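::Amino acid chain::
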Amino acid sequence: MNHQGRKTYQGRDRRSAWLLAASLGLVGLTGAGAAQAQLEDFEVMDNPAEAEKPFEGTAELGYNKISGNSDSESLRASADMTWFRAPWSYSLKLAARNASDDDETSAEEYLVAGRTRYNLSRENYLFGLARWDKDRFSGYDSQSTLAGGYGRQLLSGPPHSLAVEVGPGVRHDEYEDGGSDNVGLLYAGLDYDWQFSDTSKFSQSLATEASDENIIGRSETALTVAMNDALALKVSYEVEFNDNPPPGASSQTDTYTGVSLVYDM
């Protein structure tokens, strides 16, 4: 069923938009007696060819609070888990984010996502993904996406790792006023890591869902610094863009800058 409130957007010219994200600097301080940690301990890798153990996982938590002339606080929590059984790997991600200004909620989002990967060779693979996202201020009640296709491991680090993937998909959009849409889409993704020291890594991920209805782009730029064998600090900058959002959306572009503590499971 087509959503009636979106008809006014159908004549809009399609914008060409790419997201440029800048990394933020971070200095990691460790105690004099702490062992030097390898950063791959903190990154959930989904390539079965590079797996050293059957399971890897991380949990991430970030909290900020400002008080005084204005009161604001934000909380972010997530967990990433990957299971390996060569040539397969299976990943699960759970995430939640909440923010408020002067006791009024300004951001609220929940995410559940799963991925699977099958290596055809060390460089070539097939992938499948499922994603459910509920963002209170996006104009959608929820979005559910299924996609699959072909991926290519262009670089296998360290120090540099780069993978790209593309394939068809479908998305079910539930709108906050009760309407819904089913749309076909083309999915494309990119993941890049640069481990420039034993304890520091820069990462960049991009994902795009292009359909006749709209173009949705997501970007995360991050710098992660290991403090010891179990903990790391992460500074991240995220952007989500929708060139044709529903009428109830607060804006076309959402950005999030955060500092969080990452725990190796």
Remarks:
- Residues 19 and 172 are 24 Å apart (CA to CA).
- Residues 4-44 have pLDDT under 50 and may be disordered.
- The longest strand covers residues 180-197.
- The chain has one domain: 4-8+38-264.
